[in-house]
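Next comes this protein:
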Amino acid sequence: MPRRKFSGEESKGLIYGTSAFLIWGFTPFYFNALDRLRVEEIVAHRIVWCAVFLVLVLTIGRQWPAVGQALRNRKVLLILFITALLNSLNWGVFIYSVVSDQLLASSLGYFLNPLVVVVLGFIFLRERLSRTQQLAVAIAAGGVLTQIIAFGELPWIALTIAIAFGLYGLMRKTVDAGPAVGLFIECLLIGPFALGWLFWLNHEGLGAFGQFGLGYDAFIALAGVLTGVPLVLFAAGARRIKLATIGLLQYIAPSAYLVMALTIWREPFETADYIAFGCIWTALILYTSEIWRTRIV
C-alpha cells in the first residue's frame, strides 16, 4: 500500500519539528562554550532566562488567560512543580555530561528514552505491551546490563536522563496546559530558587554574570532563547504532524550527540559501548517498525 504524501500543513510541521530537534541536537556546542560557569549556575540561568523569553512568547500568543487558569489550580501547580524538578534534573545531568566530556552517555540516555516511556506507560497507565515491545525492552535492558558488567557501575547519566525525561513526559500528559504555558509556570515555580542561588553566587564573588562584559552576559542570557525557541517550534510541528512522525524525529538529537562525542570530543568508544548501542538501536528498530506498521505516519 503506497504511502500518502504530506499536505502543505504537514510539510510545515515537518520543517518545524526537524528544526526543533536540530537546535536541541547542537546545544552541546553552546553549553561547552560556557566553560566559566558551574553546571548548577548554567541550569539556574537557563531557568531564569527561559522564563523571561516565554513572557514574550505568551504575550505574542495571547496565552496569559491560560496561564491564569493554570495558576488557580492547585493540582496543576503541584504537578508542574514536580515536573519542574524533573526538568531541572534532566537539564543538569545533560549539561554535566557535556562539560565533563561524557556526551556519549547522554546520547545513550536519549536513545533509551522511548523504551523507558513504554515501560512507564505499562507501570503507571496500565498500557499493555505487545510482544514486539516486550522484546525491544528486553534487548535494551540487555544493553544496559552490558555496561554494568563491563564498567562495574550503573550508567547513571544515561539512566537518569532517560527516566527523568520519561517521567516528565508522563506527568505533563496529565496537565491541561500547553507547552509554553506549562514550561513558563515550571520556571515560575522553581525560578525563586534559581534566582536565590544566582544572587548568592554573585554576592560571594563566584558567579560569572556581570564579570566578563556585556557580550558574555548576553551569551549567558541566550540560554533562554535556546530553550524556548525549539519548544515553540516543536509545539507548532506537533500540531501539524502525526505522533509517529514526531517519534521518528526525536532520534535526530541523540544521533547528533553521538557524532559530536566521537568526532569532536573524541570520547572513547569501547566494546561495551558497541554492544550497548547495538542493543538499544536494535530495540529502537523493533519499536519504530511497529509504530510505522500500526499507525499512519
Summary: Residues 8-294 form one domain. The CA atoms of residues 13 and 240 lie 5 Å apart. The mean pLDDT is 90. The first helix runs from residue 8 to 25.
